[in-house]
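Field log, afternoon session.

UNIT: design team B
ACTIVITY: writing a sequence onto a fixed backbone
BACKBONE:
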């Protein structure tokens, strides 16, 4: 099981909490952002990663699995990135993340499947 502090996304966390009206629940958007971070760790060329589904329901969907602490989310989407040969490849991903304190996120599972 991997954990990731939201310090790398501190600004995004602030925005997410502000957008939620300051509630304790991190929300779907923050879960999607943290999944993107975990997906990038699995890619050959993470600097080339593009997530077209952040604003499009056609490509990304976040489902709340648990709406109380520890909050748990499932994010499905696509990522475009370069492979070892420099070709851009689209991959599907399914990511499950959770958090107890809105600061430390735990990866529950990640499946990354190239097209």
């Amino acid at each position: 099981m991997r954990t990731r502090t939201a310090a790398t996304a501190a600004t995004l966390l602030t925005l997410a909490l502000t957008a939620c009206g300051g509630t304790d629940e991190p929300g779907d958007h923050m879960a999607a952002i943290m999944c993107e971070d975990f997906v990038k760790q699995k890619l050959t060329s993470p600097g080339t990663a593009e997530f077209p589904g952040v604003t499009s329901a056609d490509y990304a969907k976040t489902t709340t699995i648990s709406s109380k602490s520890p909050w748990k989310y499932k994010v499905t989407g696509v990522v475009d990135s370069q492979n070892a040969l420099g070709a851009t490849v689209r991959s599907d991903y399914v990511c499950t993340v959770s958090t107890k304190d809105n600061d430390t996120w735990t990866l529950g599972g990640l499946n990354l499947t190239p097209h």
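LOG NOTE: The mean pLDDT is 82.
NEXT ACTIVITY: expression trials, pending approval
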